[in-house]
Specification:
Elements: E1 3-7, E2 18-21, H1 32-35, E3 39-40, H2 48-54, H3 61-72, H4 76-88, E4 91-95, H5 104-127
Parallel strand pairs: 1-4, 2-3, 2-4
Helix pairs in contact: 3-5, 4-5
InterPro entries: YeaO-like
């Protein structure tokens, strides 16, 4: 399973596979053609309240990740959809934050790597029944 992250301001590449924007708000100054995203999954973005509370403060990173995971736990359909896509090939989570280490796409990637592995193992178990 290949889940990557990339800033929307970086040049799209074929190696990105399926490009999914995971911000709640469209990135400033970026045209849709320029972003080259196939899906915009606002439901996987942190809530406005959580995003504002975090404010990209590295000191709040651990707490942000925990709160964000709790929000993501409430979106099982969207998580399952992105896990299916990840099972079919490379996906790249597109974000606009300046910080490449402390942003929602990085936190979402970590969450998905665990959840999608779980989805695959339970899907495999269901196939035999």
């Amino acid at each position: 399973m290949d889940i990557r992250t990339k800033r929307v301001y970086e040049t799209p590449a074929k190696a990105d596979g399926l490009r999914i924007l995971v911000d709640r708000v469209w990135p400033r100054g970026v045209k849709k053609e320029q972003a080259a995203v196939q899906h915009w999954m606002k439901s996987l973005a942190p809530s406005s309240d959580l995003r504002k509370w975090f404010g990209h403060d590295p000191n709040r990173w651990s707490e942000f990740q925990e709160r964000y995971r709790r929000e993501l736990d409430k979106t099982p359909d969207a998580v399952a959809e992105i896990c299916r896509a990840a099972g079919e090939g490379t996906i790249t989570l597109i974000y606009s934050a300046r910080d490449d280490v402390h942003n929602n796409a990085v936190a979402l990637r970590e969450y998905l790597l665990k959840r999608c592995a779980h989805h695959r193992s339970t899907a495999g178990n269901d196939a035999g029944h």
